[in-house]
Design brief:
15 helices; elongated; six-stranded mixed sheet; alpha+beta
């Protein structure tokens, strides 16, 4: 009912009563749908008939004539009996309200508003409830299901709802919020109907501006923990999983897949698990613990390979890149080998460096003028866990290069810039002012010509670098921060604390640039492989007492 007529003092008229004026005023249903006021006025206007005079019958002289004085008494009696009947007809019925002129209109308004409210209520009550979780909303087409059944249906889209004991439910309907205490035994429809029949809901609906609210069914994760659930277990063998008391077991297999074993009263079910949410997300890759291979060293190796491409004949060649643990630097060892255009047979049984001093970091071999692609022969030979590099198109000014790692015989392609110094370096900022691109959206990477620049011999302006950080892509900033970390390691190791090997040119500028890079990432996307505390530790080691 609207606010305008909410204070109407009379009860609303039910649908079964109808909106007949005669029914409101009483007296039954008048025939021919006549107005009762017209009937009363007609009775009032009708003149009262005079009393009937007794007729005198002539008779024989011997018969006595009636006494004439009795006529006035009869007339008075007749008048006395007629007047009360006419007066009673003119008096208002005792069943009518006191204010007969206003009530028909008020009652009509009341009935109209009541009918509108009933129509709106019927439309509202027929609306299906709505599943609401975060920004997701969906009509619940089967309100006869329980809250637990709804949770199971939605757990594929929302894995955090997969454990019922960690999920609570509530229903928000208009101004009413009801917590669900028994999600397994309570249907959504029953809660919706219970709220609709409550006085609190109906009173709130009368006062609310929104007369058509949604019935929102909301889950909420009330508990969260890390690791694997207590009823699950990870086992190295199927036998151990079967012997355990865990109803759900995860077992790795020799085919490289993870299998899930479920134990029920029906038996044991075993199937490959496509998505193991219990395990951490891992991506293949290589994180070097040593500095980048110097560009000067790579140039020497390229020159060595090219000397076997003279005239009409071409040969492959092999070199080992070693890390000298004493000198803290990379060096090259060339083993004895017999070579042809497409094959290398190296003798590794003699003249090999000491393993106590040298780390065999990478194998690098040439494909002369052929493409820099790893062959099937390479796959059979390069099984040790280390880096492998192949150079091709050595007949061109810039040769091709491919890099991969072997992790126990499993190969993963790598970006050459992740392990080798690139060709880029710092250039004068005035050069950028001379170039105008045809695409206004294009913004070149500021300050460097390649994502993996070589170490700068000249100090870089830190303030200018920080102003250009917002224009750098997030991926570029990740790679640049990784490169800065490698510079710190080289500076503290093989670089002999020489600032010329730092990108920024000075220790303080380099640390400031690293902190600015780290702070530029959103909190949830900051790198996990280096923290702000790690950078401050570099600062303490590189600046000594100045770090405090």
């Amino acid at each position: 009912m609207s606010d305008q007529n909410s204070s109407f003092p009379f009860e609303s008229i039910g649908q079964e009563e109808g909106l007949e004026i005669a029914a409101i005023f009483g007296g039954g249903t008048p025939e021919n749908n006549t107005n009762p006021f017209e009937a009363m006025m007609a009775q009032q206007a009708e003149p009262i008939a005079p009393p009937t005079q007794p007729q005198t019958v002539e008779s024989a002289p011997s018969q006595e004539a009636p006494a004439p004085q009795t006529a006035p008494a009869q007339t008075a009696a007749a008048v006395t009996t007629l007047v009360p009947e006419t007066t009673k007809a003119l008096q208002p019925s005792s069943t009518l309200p006191a204010n007969t002129e206003d009530n028909p209109i008020s009652a009509a308004f009341a009935k109209q508003e009541e009918a509108a409210a009933q129509t709106a209520a019927k439309s509202l009550f027929e609306k299906v409830p709505v599943f609401s979780y975060g920004s997701a909303k969906e009509d619940i087409t089967d309100p006869a299901q329980t809250f637990e059944e709804l949770r199971i249906a939605k757990s594929d889209d929302f894995p955090e709802l997969s454990e019922g004991k960690r999920v609570s439910w509530s229903v928000e309907y208009g101004k009413v919020t009801k917590a669900i205490t028994d999600p397994k035994g309570t249907t959504i429809r029953s809660v919706k109907e219970e709220i609709e029949q409550s006085k609190v809901f109906l009173d709130g609906l009368k006062k609310a501006k929104d007369k058509n609210p949604d019935c929102l069914v909301k889950p909420r994760v009330t508990a969260q923990s890390k690791g694997i659930a207590s009823y699950k277990g990870v086992f190295p063998t199927l036998e151990e999983a079967q012997a355990s008391e865990k109803p759900i077991c995860l077992i790795p297999s020799d085919d490289g897949r993870v299998y899930e074993l479920r134990k029920t009263e029906l038996g044991e079910f075993l199937a490959p698990k496509e998505k193991v949410i219990d395990f951490q997300q891992i991506r293949a890759g290589f994180t070097p613990a040593l500095p980048l291979i110097p560009l000067e060293l790579l140039q020497q190796i390229i020159s060595f390979f090219r000397c076997y491409m003279g005239g009409t004949q071409e040969f492959e060649a092999l070199a080992h890149i070693l890390w000298d643990k004493e000198e803290k630097e990379f060096t090259v060892h060339v083993p004895r080998q017999s070579v042809s255009k497409a094959r290398i047979d190296a003798d590794l049984s003699q003249d090999m460096p000491s393993e106590e001093r040298y780390l065999h970091y990478a194998d690098i071999h040439s494909h002369n003028s052929m493409e820099a692609k790893f062959s099937s022969v390479d796959d059979q030979d390069e099984r040790a866990t280390r880096l492998y590099i192949v150079l091709g198109r050595l007949d061109r000014f810039f040769p091709d290069i491919s890099v991969r790692m072997s992790c126990g015989g499993t190969y993963q392609e790598l970006d050459p810039g992740a392990v080798i110094e690139g060709l880029g370096t710092v250039f004068p900022r005035e050069w950028r002012a001379q170039v105008t691109t045809c695409s206004p959206e294009f913004e070149p990477e500021p300050g460097i010509a390649r994502v993996f620049p070589v170490r700068s011999r000249k100090a870089a302006p830190t303030e200018e670098f920080e102003t250009k950080l917002p224009g750098m892509s997030e991926g570029h900033r990740y790679r640049l921060l990784s490169r800065f970390q490698m510079d710190c390691e080289y500076y503290l190791g093989a670089g002999n604390r020489c600032a010329k090997f730092l990108w920024a040119g000075t220790e303080q500028a380099h640390i400031s640039a690293m902190l600015a890079l780290w702070d530029s990432f959103p909190e949830k996307r900051r790198p996990e492989w280096i923290s702000r505390e790690d950078i401050l530790r570099y600062k303490a080691r590189m600046l000594g007492e100045l770090a405090a």
